[in-house]
Amino acid sequence: MLHGSVLDNEGQHGSRWQAVMSISAKIGCAPQTLNEWVKKAEVDSGKRAGIPTDMAEKMKALERENRELRQANEILRKASAYFAMAELDRRSK
User: How many CB atoms within 10 Å of residue 6?
Assistant: First the structure.
C-alpha cells in the first residue's frame, strides 16, 4: 500500500511531504495526488477526521436516489393534476 510506504518512510525523509515527493517520483505520479491518496487512506482507517470513502459513496447513492424520487413525485403530481382537470372537463360537458 502506497500510503503505508509514505508513512513508513516519513521518518527517513524528515517530513511527510519529502516522503511523498520521493515516492511519487518513483511511481510516476504527481506528489499532490499521492498526498491526497495518503490522506484518504488515513480517513478510511480512522487516523484522520473526515468522511470515509464507503460512507461518501453511500451518501452519493442516497442523494441520487432522493433526487430520482423527487423527480418521480413531481411527475406523479403533474399527472394527477392533469387527470383531475380532464375529469372536471369531462363532467362539465
Answer: 22
* Number of domains composing the chain: 2
Domain span including residue 59: 51-93
Q: From CA 88, how far away is CA 83, in angstroms rounded?
A: 9
Give dist(CA 2, CA 27) in Å, integer: 9
Identify whether residues 37 and 60 lie together within a single domain: no
- Three-state SS for 40? helix
Q: Quick check: 69 and 61 in contact, CB under 8 A?
A: no
pTM above the 0.70 mark?
no
| Whole-number pLDDT of residue 2 | 59
